[in-house]
Amino acid sequence: MPERPHSVEADPTVEVDLCTSNVLFRAAVSSGTSTGVCEALEFGDNDKTCYMGKGVSRAVEHINKTIAPALISKKLSVANAILGVTLAVCKAAAVEKGVPLYLHIADLADNSEVILPVAAFNVINSNSHAGNTLAMQKFMILPVHGKNFREALSIGVELYHNLKNVIKKKYGKDATNVGDEGGVDVAASEFSGQGNMTWTSSCLMTPAARQRFTASAGIQVVGNDLIVTNLKLMSKVMGEKSCNCVLLKVNQISSVTKSLQVCKLAQWGVMVSHCSGETEDTFIAELLGGFALGKTRLVSLADLSASYNQLLRIEEELGSKAKFAGRNFRHSVAN
Q1: CB-CB contact of 230 with 261 (8 Å)
Q2: 87 with 120, same domain?
Q3: CATH number at residue 275
């Protein structure tokens, strides 16, 4: 029975309740702000009188009247039907198997070990995610030198707060507003004529569809709008060598199974991304551990604190078996 929780952007989204013989499983679907033309489409209401057209009543009705009966009668391949259902089914399968969700996902990926990712902290926002016009939409930091995920998380959090304090001291409080993905919304005018901030780039995300880069550069070029987690586009981009890393957004491909196919097809790194319209569902943390991917693009602090906390729990549960990607973040086990 789907419900309608709200994302961190206060927009309605879909939540699926899947009932087995004696257990209830629940999964919430995130929603992105900037979407590509080739990714899986969201089924919205487009009724401007309700949530400014962002309601999801039609999606809820589709699940109740089409997907749920087909699932019960076993006439539908659920893994490729709708994201909320596939997430709930994946959770149910883990309980049926009697293992943590991340270990079930690791089994699906044929991974014998769980590797905690390097979190890419979104520290400064711009353009569609903020109110400024800086050339780069996001400035992210990767604390690769931590000895484990817990220490790396601490480094990222401390750097985020210290950066905000530095900007506030130099440019004033108005320069430290927060963008919709948790990064500081720094007005572009604050930087002009007042010195420059120096950044060392180890990873670049392709900013526009159809724009080509050479993937042979000394940095990792992440395919975002070039690929939009689309298997056909991935094959094309790989042939052109336009990038050397794929940005995986589960909501763009709408299936756990297809997400795994993306990781297997990628001949280079994989970066898992949150959505700007995230929920409190921590499935992304379980997927990161199970797929054993090198890094993840998560928003800073409160918006995804539940996912950060779940990754900490996974690391604690694994104990001495826990591994951290660290400086090897460019490479994933899944491929």
Answers
A1: no
A2: no
A3: 3.20.20.120
Q: Is 70 exposed, middle or buried (0-12, 13-18, 19+ CB in 10 A)?
A: middle
Average pLDDT over residues 119-137: 71
- Residue 224 makes CB contacts below 8 A (sequence gap 6+) with 205, 206, 207, 247
Total of domains in the chain: 2
Residue given tokens 């400014």 in the structure block: 52
Residue type, 266: A
CA 193, CA 170: separation in Å to the nearest integer?
13
Backbone angles phi, psi at 19, to 5 degrees: -105, 125
User: How many Å apart are CA 164 and CA 291, to the nearest integer?
Assistant: 33
Q: 125 and 94 in one domain?
A: no
Asked whether residue 84 falls in the same domain as residue 156, the answer is: no
Model-level pTM?
A: 0.74
Q: Tell me which of 44, 71, 98 is where a domain ends.
A: 98
State whether 177 and 322 are in the same domain.
yes
Longest dimension (CA), the chain: 66
> What residue numbers bound the domain in which 79 lies?
15-98
C-alpha distance from residue 276 to each of 35, 180, 298, 322 (Å)? 11, 7, 9, 29
Q: Is the same domain home to 90 and 131?
A: no
Stretch 49-58: mean pLDDT: 76
307 shares its domain with 217: yes
The CATH number of the domain where 84 resides is what?
3.30.390.10
Residues recognised as catalytic: 181, 249
**Can you tell me the distance from the alpha carbon of 27 to that of 263, in angstroms, rounded to the nearest whole number?**
22
pLDDT digits (tens, 9 = 90+) for 273-302: 877 667 778 898 999 888 887 556 554 444
Determine the pLDDT at residue 157: 84
CA terminus-to-terminus distance, the chain = 36
**Nearest alpha-carbon partner for 201 in 263, 136, 271:** 136
Q: In this structure, what are the phi and psi dihedrals at residue 22, rounded to the nearest 5 degrees?
A: -145, 10
